[in-house]
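lol forgot to send this yesterday, sorry. C-alpha cells for the thing we talked abt
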C-alpha cells in the first residue's frame, strides 16, 4: 500500500561558529550519520518544516530568522526500502538546504525512535561520515562559505 509522504524535504546542517557539525545516527540504520532532515507536511512552508524538524530531532528551538535558507535544492532518488512511504510511482525527492549556527556545546536531545546517537564533529570529519552525498556536499559548501566570508574581513 502506498503512503502519503510528500517528496519534498529539508536538510538542516547544524553547526557552531568553529564549524563543528551535529550529526545524528539513524536508529533503523546503524552507521548512517546525517544532519537534520525531514519531509514537508500539509501546508507548511519550507522554513516552518526546517524549524519543526530541528526541534523534533534535536530538541533545539530556533526561529525562522535564525535559519539560513541557502536557496539550494537537490533532487535524489529515494531508497527503494523507503518508497512505500510515498504515493505510488514516486521515486525522487527534492531536498531544500538550510543551516543553523548555534553556540558551541549546545545540548542536543535526539528523537530516540528516529536516532540512536548524536555527536559533534569537525566539518572535515562530519563530511566524510555522512551517508548522503547531499549532506556531505552541504557541509563542504558551508566551509567554503565561511572561508569566503572570513576572507572579506
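and heres what i got for the seq, position by position
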Amino acid at each position: 500500500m502506498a503512503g502519503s509522504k510528500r517528496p519534498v524535504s529539508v536538510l538542516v546542517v547544524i553547526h557552531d561558529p568553529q564549524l563543528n557539525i551535529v550529526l545524528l545516527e539513524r536508529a533503523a540504520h546503524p552507521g548512517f550519520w546525517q544532519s537534520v532532515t525531514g519531509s514537508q507536511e500539509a501546508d507548511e512552508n519550507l522554513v516552518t518544516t526546517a524549524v519543526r524538524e530541528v526541534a523534533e530531532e534535536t530538541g533545539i528551538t530556533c526561529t525562522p530568522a535564525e535559519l539560513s535558507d541557502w536557496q539550494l535544492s537537490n533532487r535524489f532518488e529515494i531508497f527503494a526500502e523507503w518508497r512505500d512511504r510515498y504515493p505510488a510511482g514516486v521515486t525522487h525527492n527534492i531536498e531544500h538546504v538550510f543551516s543553523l549556527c548555534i553556540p558551541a556545546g549546545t545540548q542536543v536531545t535526539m528523537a530516540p525512535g528516529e536516532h540512536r546517537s548524536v555527536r559533534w564533529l569537525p566539518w572535515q570529519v562530519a563530511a566524510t561520515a555522512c551517508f548522503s552525498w547531499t549532506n556531505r556536499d552541504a557541509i563542504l559548501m558551508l566551509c567554503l562559505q565561511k572561508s569566503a566570508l572570513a576572507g572579506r574581513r
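The CA atoms of residues 51 and 62 lie 6 Å apart. anyway ping me if u want another try
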